[in-house]
Amino acid sequence: MQHSGDVAPSSQLGQAAVSSGSRPGTWTLLASAFTFAIMLVALYATFLYAPAEAVQGNVFRIFYVHLSLAWLAYLAFVVVFVGSVGYLWRQTRGWDHLAKASAEIGVLFTTLVLVTGSIWARPVWGVWWTWDARLTTSLVLWFIYVGYLMLRGAIGDRERAARAAAVVGVLGFVDVPISFLSVFWWRTVHPPATTVAESGGLTPEMRITLLLMLVAFTALYVFLLRFKMVLEGLRDSVWDMERDRTS
Amino acid sequence: MQQRLALARALLHSPTVLLLDEPDTGLDLESISELEALLRAGPLNENTVVMATHDLELGLRWADQVAILHHGTFVFQASARDLTLETLKQAYQKVTGEAARAVTRARPPASRSTEAPVASPASRVARAGLFLTQGIAILRKDLVQELRTREAVTGTIIFALLALLVFQFAFAPNPEMAPAWGAGALWASFIFGGMLGFGRAFAGERDKGTLEGLLLAPFDRSALYLAKLAANYCLMLALAVVALPVFGAMFNLPVFQPAVLATVALGTFALAVVGTLFSAVTANVRTRELMLPTLLLPLAVPVVISASSATADALGSPGSLNSLPWLGLLAAFSGIIFAVALVLFEHIVEE
Predict the structure, then answer these.
(1) Is the Cβ pair B306, A182 closer than 8 Å?
(2) pTM score of the predicted model
(3) How far is the C-alpha of B341 from the C-alpha of B339, rounded, in Å?
(4) pLDDT of B66 higher than 70
(5) B277 at the A interface (CB within 8 A)?
């Protein structure tokens, strides 16, 4: 469709990706080092600095990881939405790379949110799973974006896959608040079977730990996003090369 | 050879009107004279033949009437008997030259009026009318097709009824639980039945090779969405008309009350809004039987929850207003997704 207009920017991007891929720049090295360091600090804070919680004890430490992952997963899906709108508006490959990369990380983080949530729920609530509004919405989110990735995989043509995925990226994002509201109302109608142990407020140490974990996961997200985007750029230039060779 | 075959195919059913576009392209001299014999002396001589050619001599030799088209308008017309090749050539040069000058003079205002239509109320009304006419034309085509074959509607209804049967066996609800279980079973069967029907809306067009034709037709893409949505909604309503009484009888529940009917009307619309959109998204996907449910079900979660809760409330305590918030949620969902779908739709179907 817009092949002629499309080749130039994507192959430029591809070359940029190749150069940064073979010789990581100072910036990339610094960012990697920062991510690694802050992850270590956050882990230290989670296990050694933060005090045990009054009611739940050490089990509560999973909260820092769980909550940070959940926030970053939501952020990732916001980025998918932005990338999708950007792609539909501009039709340039970069926006699509952003959306796809962010969706993959978002699905990964949501999976971890569900797993850590389950691990946390077992000792605290006595069940692996409860149909609480936030949990259920996370599960719905997971399904939507797994569907998003499956749809991308099922369409061979690059532009068509990007367009179809962008539609799902926008629609999925719009759907989430309505899903949350409906599950919330549904929960109010059918009260949960298990009693949820209320946790006390957070102490300052806990707040600092949470903040550290959030920064660490944000850094990890940015780091992964950048690498995924470089990868998508490379994949795109391979695609272009193959097309040029066959045509 | 291909051109000969194409001509033979065109002549096969002895058409009363034959349209030929440069019929001599790719033909050898012998075939050309055969074609000429067919046109001038054969059975085709009785019929109307319209032929486009850039070969003035051939046109003059074969035709009874000669016309010159320039930028879509007839600029010259004469009987072939009154013309020689020389006079036709002169006429051609004269009219195309003149017309070209006339077009250059006329173009600036003309192009301005087509590219940036002045949004006067009258033209807006005219465009809305055109939009409606286009949508209704597609809808009518779909409905006529469905009425003749009854493929989608039969399959959808039978499948939904089977789903109800399976739910009845699987859950075997006792009478107090019947409203809650039954409402769930009803909506699950609506969704599963509907999914079968939605899948056909665009995939059917694609399989028959008519999707391309629809997309080539010069109408607004959102008219296409609206028409397909209306067709799917009709399908869902047909399903509801059959499934609801059966459901009421099977689960022994009072289904004919305003709250249940309103929920069914709104809930099936909400399903059709999402279903039509994803039917278009997955029409070109190889594994679309898998992809449509995978995309549709998670996004339809608000519909499932609110429609079955509203139905359960209405069935459990007839006459109460418990269903109202759920109906509001259904309306909000349909409205929001509908608006987004209208904006996104042109991106889905462009090929």
Answers:
(1) yes
(2) 0.74
(3) 5
(4) yes
(5) yes
Q: Where are the domains of chain A?
A: 78-238
Mutate to test the interface with A, among B221, B225, B299 (most CBs of A within 10 A): B299
Q: Do A181 and B329 touch (CB under 8 A)?
A: yes
Whether B166 has its CB under 8 Å from any CB of chain A: the answer is: no
How long a stretch of residues is chain A?
247
**Pairing between β-strand B65-70 and β-strand B17-21 as defined by DSSP bridges:** unpaired
Closest residue in chain B to residue A186, using alpha carbons only: B305
**Lowest mean per-residue pLDDT among A22-26, B4-8, B173-177, B291-295:** A22-26
- How many Cβ contacts (< 8 angstroms) between chains A and B? 90
Q: Measure in Å the smallest separation between the Cα of A168 and chain B Cα atoms.
A: 8
Are the C-beta atoms of A127 and A120 separated by less than 8 Å?
no
CB contact under 8 A, A185 and B295: no
Look-up of token digits 């296990």: A47
B332 touches chain A (CB under 8 A): yes
Cβ atoms of residues B253 and B175 within 8 Å: no
Paired tokens of A48: 């050694």
Query: Confidence band (pLDDT; 50, 70, 90) for B350?
Result: low
Per-residue pLDDT band at B81 (split at 50, 70, 90): confident
Residues contacting residue B243 through CB under 8 Å, at least 6 positions apart: B157, B160, B161, B164, B186, B189, B190, B193
End-to-end CA distance of chain B: give it in Å, rounded. Answer: 31
Burial-class residue A159 by CB neighbours within 10 Å (0-12, 13-18, 19+): middle
Alpha-carbon dihedral sign for residues B142, B145, B148, B150: negative
Listed as own residue / partner, the contacts of B53-56 with beta carbons closer than 8 Å and 24 or more positions apart are: B53/B22, B53/B23, B53/B24, B54/B22, B55/B24, B56/B85, B56/B88, B56/B89, B56/B92
According to the 3-state scheme, what is the secondary structure of A160-194? Answer: HHHHHHHHHHHHHHHHHHHHHHHHHHHHHHCCCCC
Q: A131 to chain B: which residues are within 8 Å by CB? A: none
Asked whether A54 and A94 are in contact (CB, 8 A), the reply is no
Residue A209 has pLDDT above 50, yes or no: yes
- Which sign, positive or negative, has the C-alpha torsion B187, B275, B279, A139? negative
For residues B288 and B137, give the distance between their C-alpha atoms in angstroms, rounded to a whole number. Answer: 27
Find the closest chain A residue to B307 by CA distance.
Answer: A182
**Angle of the B301-316 helix axis to the B288-299 helix axis, nearest 10:** 60
B80 touches chain A (CB under 8 A): no
Average model confidence (pLDDT) for chain A? 83
